[in-house]
Specification:
Number of helices of chain C: 12
Helix content of chain A: 10-25%
Number of strands of chain C: 1
Oligomer: heterotrimer
Structural class of chain A: alpha+beta
Chains: A alpha+beta (369), B mainly alpha (268), C mainly alpha (280)
Chain lengths: 369, 268, 280
């Protein structure tokens, strides 16, 4: 197994930078996700690693060797495409055997390795079928077997689950994880689905407008996203720009005043005075009571609000609450039920509020044409 | 009341449609029927039936010699048109470059330029360089240029259905660019190539306009020769020859219909 | 999709072929047609090209070409619409057969078709017999080797283009539009006039342009059915080239036809891209 080093890679289409100075390392045997919205350059990055497009700047090393001069057919990578790209006029067997035949693997060994690969992805008995006779999930498995049978140094997956329905997607996620662990192949996975990235990866690289917005392990990126953009993409519902006030408190918190709002919130973090930050809090971390509740507060950061709207999501209720002190409504997810128009008390625990780096205004890069 | 109006409207549409559909097949049916006449002059309906004019056609030297000319011209020009069409379709389907629009316009230009102009312009050049007697060669060149847009369109639309990711998948599995094309793209565009080739062949075989300008004395095509016989020969032999051309065209037409469907004609 | 680089190895042979055998001949045609008429004249001399519109013969041929093209286009519009509607209404089996009936004639050689029409339209042909039987005429009238022959032949040649253009838009009409209109209280008749007709206008427009431009530049059919006394532009070019051997005049007509061809395609592209935008 080989590691993948992407260093300072850029790709320009006409005047548009699809990818600009992207760097990250995927350690050998690890599972790395490239996460971002469509047009963020994640697929282009994958195509540059695969060699389908030539990079304009930077270098890609696989197992320590630069590969930029090599055409795709000399890189020994397995690629799984979003539409699977199965050869429609070949049987499952011939699809999977394709790469081995190009490598002039002897006939007997080819048959054995194809059978092994088909077995690995859980599709025995279907070797004689044509792709159009298979379901989406089965086609997905054939595509995986075809990419893995050549024993690639790296497995590249371009949104492989996006064409499946929700139930199958959840199932394939487990399958993908199992297969990756069994084969131990270094994998780079492109997705726009934060849940997929969180559940599958050892490392998540969040991309935005052709650049890397943050890279970390799922747990740390979930708990402490680096920037407001990353937090937003990972589902932090409440984000408010603010400024750190002067003088840290004794208890290790700072007071942050919300821009365009009339409230100062205590946050359990250290930042220099006057620093521009973005306050972020997940809706599930907010506490909410009826206005006449006698319940005592855990600490500071109490706000008054009025319920504007709610949606029932089964395990909880998501509320949109207007707060006079905040420029935009708060999103709070709680178990208790409140009526529209009801006055409520809200509490934002200082330990649950994240102080995030505001994003620099984007410039010079953009979507892949 | 509205219902009556609606139904009479529909009835009117049906009557008109049937009339014009009959109009479309009428000359073909009449040609076929009158070729089996027993009389020595053309009338419709024929007074009696016989196959004597087919025997007469098969015994005519001019039919055979010009038929072979037409076949040779159609086969050679179709082959070249298919090769040019595949190359041009590949360029247009897979590449973005400065001047791509101009390239497309150049390759489709024979659809823009009236046939008489193509024929006369080629004749003009061949007279300038004194090759006007190389009739076969001139005809092959003319037919190739005029039929390439058909092969291009047909191959191009079949390429549009083959995703670029198939080629990339083949390449990532170890196939070079060239072998990825032959192993993965080519099998997918065979129907487009076949359809394009048949259309090109049919066009070349039946063409009058280009051939009228480029046929030299000893290199005439069957339709051009037939044209003079219609003018000067009063007997029904031309009817038999025409009927044979209809049958040949019908065979190719059914081949297209059975293999790739009639949709290839729909975007013309 | 490969970007940027010019695919030289693939494109060069194609460009060479079209450059040598299409572009160069067209340029030589321009050179020929603009040759000076007088000994002392200079190149380019537009006398001949303008003469196409000036001389009596040229003027007559031009007028006849336009007149015939307009009549043929009108017939194709009026005839093509019911045929297209009828085919669109048929079940898939019949539709395939009728589509074949529409498409097959336009693969047939122009000579063969002309032959069929000559038999049909001749003095003792079916058309004359029918007209006499209906009591519309007393004795046979001349229907071929004149403008009527050209009009019938060109209508037969070009109607498939109109039908296919109309069918293309008719089949793309979303059945839900019809259902939506009906649910809003529209009768089938007003669905037809207010939904179907407006949606087919782009197809009618492209079909009309196609038929008119092809009628203006058709050669074989008018050549075979028009006889010698009713020249249109294309057959006049042939006469100049092979009967009168005046290639300068022939080339001048060629230039006019070339300009017409380019003009119509440009209009056609403009119209169809606009049509896409407003109904896409």
């Amino acid at each position: 197994m080989s590691d993948v080093e992407v260093s300072g890679v850029s790709k320009r289409y006409d005047d548009l930078w699809a990818v600009k100075r992207v760097s990250f390392t995927a350690p050998a045997g690890s599972f790395t996700s490239l996460l971002g919205p469509s047009g963020c350059g994640k697929t282009t990055t994958l195509r540059l690693i695969a060699g389908f497009a030539a990079l304009d700047e930077g270098e890609v090393r696989i197992g320590g060797k630069p590969v930029d001069a090599l055409p795709p057919w000399r890189r020994n990578l397995g690629v799984v495409f979003q539409n699977y790209a199965l050869f429609p006029f070949m049987t499952v067997f011939d699809n999977v055997a394709f790469g081995l035949r190009r490598r002039r693997v002897p006939r007997g060994e080819t048959a054995a390795r194809v059978a092994e690969a088909i077995d690995l992805v859980g599709l025995p008995d279907l070797a004689g079928r044509y792709p159009r006779q298979l379901s989406g999930g089965q086609q997905q498995r054939v595509a995986l077997a075809r990419a893995l049978v050549i024993r690639p140094e790296v497995l590249l997956l371009d949104e492989p689950l996006s064409n499946l329905d929700a139930k199958l997607r959840a199932e394939m996620r487990f399958e993908l994880k199992r297969i990756q662990r069994e084969t131990g192949v270094t994998s780079i996975f492109v997705t726009h689905d934060q849940e997929e990235a969180l559940t599958l990866s050892d490392q998540i690289v969040v991309m935005n407008l052709g650049t890397v917005a943050g890279a970390a392990a799922p747990k740390s990126i979930w708990e402490q996203p680096e920037s407001a953009y990353v937090a937003d993409f990972l589902g932090v519902e409440n984000l408010f720009p603010g400024t750190v006030g002067d003088g840290a408190e004794d208890d290790g918190t700072v007071a942050v005043s919300v821009s365009e709002g009339s409230v100062t919130l205590d946050v359990a973090a250290a930042r220099p005075a006057e620093a521009a930050v973005v306050l972020g809090i997940r809706s599930g971390d907010i506490k909410m009571w009826k206005v006449d509740s006698k319940r005592a507060l855990d600490g500071p950061n109490e706000l008054a609000g009025t319920v504007r709207e709610f949606t029932y999501v089964g395990s909880a209720v998501v509320y949109q609450v207007d707060c006079a002190a905040l420029p935009r409504p708060l999103i709070a997810t709680v178990q208790e039920e409140f009526a529209v128009g009801e006055s409520v008390r809200l509490h934002l625990p200082p330990g649950a509020i994240k102080l995030l780096r505001p994003d620099a205004p984007a410039g010079g890069s953009g979507a892949r044409p | 009341m509205a219902d009556l109006f609606l139904r009479s409207g529909r009835g009117l549409v049906t009557v008109m449609a049937v009339f014009w559909l009959v109009f479309l097949v009428a000359p073909i049916v009449v040609t076929l029927a009158s070729s089996f006449t027993s009389s020595t002059y053309l009338t419709f309906p024929p007074p009696g039936w016989s196959v004597r004019w087919y025997l007469s056609a098969f015994e005519s030297e001019w039919v055979w010699s010009t038929f072979w000319n037409s076949v040779v011209i159609a086969v050679v020009s179709t082959t070249i048109a298919v090769a040019l069409g595949i190359a041009a379709a590949r360029v247009l389907a897979r590449h973005r470059f400065y001047g791509r629009g101009a390239f497309e316009y150049a390759v489709l230009s024979p659809l823009v330029i009236p046939g008489v102009v193509v024929g006369f312009a080629l004749l003009n050049v061949s007279v300038l360089i004194e090759t006007q007697d190389a009739g076969l060669l001139n005809l092959i060149i003319g037919h190739t240029m005029v039929t390439t847009p058909f092969t291009l369109r047909s191959v191009w639309s079949s390429m549009a259905g083959s995703e670029i990711s198939l080629e990339e998948a083949a390449q990532s599995l170890g196939a070079t660019r060239w072998s990825a094309f032959w192993l993965v793209v080519f099998p997918l565009i065979v129907p487009g190539i076949v359809a394009g080739a048949i259309i090109a062949f049919t066009f070349s075989f039946n063409d009058v306009t280009i051939s009228a300008f480029l046929s030299a004395r000893e290199a005439r095509t069957l339709p051009v020769e037939l044209m003079s016989h219609i003018e000067y020969l009063p007997d029904p032999t031309p009817a038999a020859v025409s009927s044979l051309m209809i049958v040949i065209t019908l065979a190719f037409f059914l081949l297209v219909e059975r293999t790739v469907g009639l949709d290839v004609f729909a975007d013309r | 999709m490969n970007t940027g680089r010019f695919p030289a190895s693939l494109a060069t042979p194609v460009l060479l072929a079209f450059g040598i055998f299409v572009l160069v001949p067209c340029v030589m045609l321009l050179v020929k047609g603009l040759e000076p008429t007088a000994e002392t004249g200079e190149w380019p001399d537009f006398t001949n090209v303008l003469g196409v519109f000036d001389s009596k013969v040229g003027q007559q041929a031009l007028n006849r070409t336009i007149r015939i093209s307009l009549i043929v286009t009108a017939i194709c519009m009026l005839a093509g619409y019911p045929v297209a509607l009828f085919i669109a209404r048929c079940g898939p089996r019949w539709r395939g057969l009728l589509l074949a009936v529409v498409i097959f004639p336009f693969l047939i050689s122009a000579v063969v078709r002309a032959f069929g029409w000559t038999v049909l339209l001749g003095d003792s042909g079916l058309a004359n017999k029918g007209l006499i039987a209906l009591g519309l005429i007393d004795r046979p009238i001349t229907l071929v080797q004149n403008e009527i022959g050209i009009i019938v032949g060109e209508t037969h040649l070009l109607m498939p283009y109109m039908i296919l253009s109309l069918l293309a838009v008719l089949q793309r009409i979303d059945p839900n539009l019809r259902h939506a209109a009906e649910s809003l209280g529209a009768s089938p008749v007003s669905v037809f006039w207010r939904i179907v007709i407006p949606l087919t206008l782009p197809g009618l427009l492209t079909g009309t342009l196609l038929v008119f431009s092809l009628a203006m530049t058709a050669f074989a059919t008018p050549f075979l059915l028009g006889g010698g006394r009713t020249p249109i532009l294309t057959t006049l070019l042939y006469d100049y080239a092979f009967t009168l051997f005046d290639w300068r005049l022939a080339a001048s007509i060629g230039i006019v036809l070339l300009i017409l061809g380019i003009l119509f395609v440009t209009i056609h592209r403009f119209v169809s891209s606009r049509g896409m935008r407003s109904y896409g």
